[in-house]
Write a structure and sequence with these properties.
single chain; 191 residues; alpha+beta; 7 strands
Length: 191
């Protein structure tokens, strides 16, 4: 059985793209590409399937984010050249960001270099930026059938614990990944 056939079989059994990549020891992009081409343009593993595969973690809803103080700061769209672009200027502050489709949050990250600069790299990833390349490919695929992916952000303060510094944004990102099912976060899928 070829690697591509194994990928398709595992997907039929309900495994998410990230789980398939880990199980076969291959790159996420390869598994994603095989499933995307097999589905005739359909998503290889929907966020609902990935969330259902991990019933111990609930999905993160946009309403949970906004109730906690996250704000809508923009939306990803496709340019006429089919490139990812953001529909407005973003804040430059350090913070936590989330990508959502409809009412479900699919991905969270931390922008330690500032939100505008970090998100720039999703739209124009360098060849060595594995996470940016992976998320870029996923979002371009999603935007082929859905008009926007919304961006939410929060800017928590840094804290102190027993005289030691605690990075508020990094802690919030990790807490969200540990508690919620976030299909595009590889750390969330693996825990």
């Amino acid at each position: 059985m070829s690697k591509s056939e194994k990928i398709r079989e595992l997907a039929k059994s309900g495994m998410s793209t990230a789980e398939i990549a880990r199980a076969l020891g291959i790159r996420y992009q390869f598994a994603y590409g095989v499933l995307r081409s097999a589905g005739g343009g359909q998503r290889p593993a929907s966020s609902l399937v990935a969330a259902a595969a991990k019933p111990s973690k609930p999905p993160l809803l946009v309403s949970d984010l906004t109730a906690a103080g996250f704000e809508h700061v923009g939306s990803w769209i496709l340019s006429p050249e089919q490139r990812l672009v953001i529909d407005r200027e973003l804040p430059k502050a350090v913070g936590v960001y989330a990508f959502a489709k409809g009412d479900i949050v699919l991905y969270v990250g931390v922008a330690t270099m500032g939100l505008a600069k970090r998100l720039y790299f999703y739209g124009r990833p360098g060849v060595s930026q594995r996470t940016s390349l992976r998320i870029n490919a996923i979002m371009v695929g999603e935007l082929a059938t859905h008009p926007t992916i919304d961006i939410y952000a929060a800017f928590p303060p840094d804290l102190e614990w027993n005289g030691l510094p605690v990075h508020g944004s990094a802690g919030l990102e990790l807490g969200l990944i540990k508690k919620y099912s976030l299909p595009w976060n590889m750390r969330s899928a693996g825990q």
